[in-house]
Amino acid sequence: RIENQAERTVLAEITSSIGHEINQPMAAIETLSDTASLMLESGDHGGASGILRQIQVESLRVGQIIQTIRRMSSTKGLVLESIDLIAVVRDLVPLAKIICKETRFSLNIRVEQGQLTVSADRTAIEQIIITLIANSHEAIVGSEARTRESRWIELSLTVIDGYASVRVQDNGPGIPEELEAEIFNSFVTTKADGLGLGLNLSRSIAEKHLGWLRLVETGIQGSVFELRLPTDQSKNAGL
After folding, report:
1. DSSP H/E element including 118
2. How many CB atoms lie within 10 A of CB 201?
3. Integer Cα distance of 121 and 78 in angstroms
4. Read out DSSP for 47-65?
5. Its pTM surpasses 0.70
6. What sign has the CA pseudo-torsion 170, 29, 196, 226?
7. What is the rounded distance in angstroms from the CA atom of residue 239 to the CA atom of residue 96?
8. Residues 6+ positions from 87 with CB-CB distance below 8 Å
9. Do the Cβ atoms of 98 and 32 come closer than 8 Å?
10. pLDDT tens readout for residues 35-60
11. Cα–Cα distance measured from residue 133 to residue 220, given in angstroms and rounded to the nearest whole number
């Protein structure tokens, strides 16, 4: 009975994780569908065609997310390929702005080199970054101390000690002190309607890439989360 209960618990967590992760591209599809409808009604068929292509991309992304979670729970693991993290982040900006549709804010990218190459499962890494951006967005939306025009999120990419570093910083109200030590645990969340699985799943993905995800700092001036992944150069050097 204990074994069966454990299996049901794992299944419940996997199911919840899938539901949590596909909410993001589904939200984008909903927004894009509304935009396409308005364009068709106004006779802008060319613009609507472009939006429909974006919907197709996000629909494919849903399947990719499900496959990523399935790979994480299998013995085969993730599918690694050489990717440029800077290009990945820049490609994600339009999707991030669609997901974060409730407020006006600035999303900035700061880089220190032209390319930052790692060996990683692209879809899985995209999910970590989107989760961090979405969490930061939720934080700045909930900040009464910030006007809509002064809300911002910044992504900084660099190399530190042989690891690619992606920092996501916001100027929200920070994480409550009583939750700081537990923020990466399952079902721990600061959102009224959150599942508390996004950061837990993201940390698991980072660790499967031989990297890590951590909360660097948090307070009334905002929070900083950092994802670190070994670069191709550090792997070749045996770091």
Report:
1. strand 117-120
2. 26
3. 6
4. HHHHHHHHHHHHHHHHHHH
5. no
6. negative
7. 33
8. 115
9. yes
10. 889 989 898 988 888 888 888 877 87
11. 18
